[in-house]
Amino acid sequence: SFSTSRGSLQRLDISRLPEVPHPRAEHKNLTPLFIVLLGFLAIIGLSTLFGIYCFKKCKYAEVTEAWEKEFGAHRFSYKYLYKATKGFNKDGFLGKGGFGEVYRGNLFLSREIAVKRMTHNGDQGVKQFVAEVVSMRCLKHRNLVPLLGYCRRKHEFLLVSDYMTNGSLDEHLFDDQKP
């Protein structure tokens, strides 16, 4: 034992000492804040994903119109025709006419189709498209290519018909190179 000029030192009783604060006690105070922050970020993330979903759904929405019900023409989704033509690929490009471009595609992986892609702005373009769909749907003749269906998405119009392997009537009438 140690002695000092003032007398002897008393024995230290460890059980009477105050507890030492643990470093984890500070983190316990941050846990509720962390949980609230994480929940807030999750809500913002889910809201953003929902907004993107709604935006894309509205952007690519296809509205059914009254004339469609009346004439019963088959409507294809744009996504389906996009896949059928392999994204309107240059390799499937058949030609260009006064009202648009024509692409080759495969319907249900077995039936070859021709997709006429037209772009019109304004009411006149819509009226012209509707008139073409209705007239092609109503006309039946062995020398006419039947309309299989159509697609309309905003200002883009697509007409779907059978692919003619021997070419178009225009080629046969006006191509001087073929006998």
UniProtKB/TrEMBL annotation:
Can you cite a GO biological process for this protein? Answer: response to other organism
Which InterPro entries does the UniProt entry name for this protein? Answer: Kinase-like_dom_sf, L-type_Lectin-RKs, Prot_kinase_dom, Protein_kinase_ATP_BS, Ser-Thr/Tyr_kinase_cat_dom
* UniProt xrefs under Gene3D superfamilies: Phosphorylase Kinase, domain 1
- Keyword ATP-binding attached: yes
Query: Where's the Protein kinase domain?
Result: 88-179
Does the UniProt entry include the keyword Nucleotide-binding? yes
Which ranges does the record mark as transmembrane?
Answer: 33-55
Q: Where does ATP bind?
A: 116
- Kindly list the GO molecular function terms attached to this UniProt entry: ATP binding; protein kinase activity
Q: Cite a single Pfam family from the UniProt record.
A: PK_Tyr_Ser-Thr
What keywords are assigned to this protein? ATP-binding, Membrane, Nucleotide-binding, Transmembrane, Transmembrane helix
Q: Which domain of life is it from?
A: Eukaryota
Q: What is this protein called?
A: AT5G60310-like protein
